[in-house]
Amino acid sequence: xxxxxxxxxxxxxxxxxxxxxxxxxxEAIVAPVAATTCDVDSQILAGHGPIPAPFALGHExxxxxxxxxxxxxxxxxxxxxxxxxxISCGTCDQCRAGHTAHCTSVPDMAMYGTPIGGEWGGxxxxxxxxxYADAMLVPLPHGLxxxxxxxxxxxxxxxxxxxxxHLRRLPGASVLVMARGSIGLYVCDIARALGxxxxxxxxxxxxxxxxxxxxxxxxxxxxxxxxxxxxxxVEATGRVDQLAVAAQSLKPEGFCxxxxxxxxxxxxxxxxxxxxxxxxxxARDNVRPNIPAALDLAASGTVTPRDVVSDVFxxxxxxxxxxxxxxxxxxxxxxx
Length: 336
Description:
- Keywords: Metal-binding, Zinc.
- The chain is an alpha/beta fold.
- Helices cover about 25% and strands about 25% of the residues.
- The chain folds into 2 domains: about 1-155 and about 285-330, Medium-chain alcohol dehydrogenases, catalytic domain (Quinone Oxidoreductase, Chain A, domain 1, Alpha-Beta Complex), CATH 3.90.180.10; about 155-280, Rossmann fold (3-Layer(aba) Sandwich), CATH 3.40.50.720.
- The protein has 10 helices and 16 strands.
- The strands form 3 sheets. Strands 3, 5, 6, 7, 8, 15 and 16 form a 7-stranded mixed sheet that branches.
- Strand 13, helix 8 and strand 14 (about 280) form a beta-alpha-beta unit.
- Helix 4 (about 155-170) packs parallel to helix 5 and helix 4 (about 155-170) packs across helix 9.
- The chain is globular.
């Protein structure tokens, strides 16, 4: 099989590797059929990631199940499933508490696409081994488009988690979104669908602002004054200075959610944040427990995540197309 290797700044290539096989209980082999880049992959490709090249890239996909161990019951060969970005067993104390990104059965930070917590490969590969398949894999509901849901492994579900629980707690909340990639656009779509009273989207990208406007958001460039008095601010820029702006946009007792991945240091206005009694969460996302609810919202017809997909390319085109810096490309094969 081939796996896509990040080999240097804006450079990737296929590398031949041994086909994975089911050789233990609970395992599955899957073949990605619709895979995409996470927002953080753009930072990695640009040379800003925390791990030096080379390594297998990719941690967002919908895959077709190829083979399963005898004890796997959640999926069967031929079925389409979402593959979560982080590796989790589903049975340890952290997993049972919903903290699947902190599973204690595997090394800390065990994930696809970046070899921090071990070598698990990447989801931009012809074949992928999935341990703990019953705990990890989520069958794709019938009728959902694999291209639209390629990001359910991380960014789509993360966007749901950043905003949906807050709108459940505080119906009609006002939402500020500061973003540079797909996460913020997904947040705009989800916030509108779930009844936010106001969504303001801030980005330097004119095309992204245009899409956010179609989602019903009021849009601003980063150079424009940012209003204050929001119930919720979502920061998905990877820049600490923008997190600081988001944190100061809240009404008293407001909440700021950050998608994290701040690879460079910076300062926060801690005194102002304290005086405003705000809450800030910067969280490595426990995506697996939230995938079913995020898929349910996608299946409701009230959201259009497919609109965020910038381009659709064939599987063999990945090394050629990634250096072209497409915003949210999806690479497909064998969808029928």
